[in-house]
Each structure stands twice: as structure tokens, then as C-alpha cells.
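Input/output pair, single chain:
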Amino acid sequence: MCRSDETEFAGLLFLLPLIDELAIIAEIGADPQLNQRPLRWWLNQLARRWVSGDDPVVCTFCGLLPNDDWPWQEEPPIDESERQVIEQWSQRLIDCLHKRLMWPPMADERLIDRVIRRHARIEAEPGWFVILFSLGQISTDIRRAALDLDPGYLPWLGVVVTFRYE
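Output:
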């Protein structure tokens, strides 16, 4: 069952390998407070920091097929301490992007917008996501920073993620 949808924020998926690299996944697993919530719930909260929850890339970022139902609808709302955790993680990701991209100094929100605001088509089936960018979306800065290298299989997400330019 393949699903296809379009997004204006496909660059959000460039952050998936950084989440693992920055040990955010390990933090969730090791902290009894954090691992009371499902991993996908945390990823959803992080994605919604920058992208509207109804954009299909949010589902993909969480390892779900585009426009899947949220499996954690019964979860209590985010509390202030959890919101602070999301803010800390988002700042770590932004700091990592500043270092990798070596762009002239700019506001954090502008940086993240320049990285994630990329039109693409998401073709997804259980366990396999292909993100199809147009050739016009190629950025030498993004390539040099190795952000658009195929992450491949992400065991903590349970999917293979590939990026293609066509």
C-alpha cells in the first residue's frame, strides 16, 4: 500500500540522522520520565516545533505513512517540562545546523526555515519512505553539509528513508 503526498517542508527529514547523532534517541530511552511517552509522540512534538501538524511530512518524520491517524491521540497534552525538553532538542539541532552549514550568521528561525522549506513528493509504504525532490531543490550547501545523504534504515524509527533528486 503505497501512499504519495506533497509537502513544502521536506527538509525536515534532513534532521532525522542528526537526531540520532545528537543522542536524542538515547536520551529518550535512558530517561524514565521521557520514555513514559512513545518515541513517535516526541518526534511529533519536535516536528510541530517548525511545521504544522497537518502537513504530511510530520507523519513521515514520526515514521508513519503520510496522513496516518496519530496513534497517541489518547496521550495527555504536553506539559511545561516536556515543552522545555523539546526546546532544548530543537536548539541543539539548530546549533548543529549552524556548525555544519557555515552560513553567515542568521537568526535560528531563519536558518531552520532555509533548511526545511523544500518542496518534495513523499512516496511511502510501510517501512520504506522515498523523498523525491526536483533537481531545482539541490543545494550545494546542503550537500556539502551531508544533510541530504540517504539515512537508509533508521532502526529506532523502523523505516528506510531515501532522498532522490529527479
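The longest strand covers residues 159-165. Residues 3-165 form one domain.
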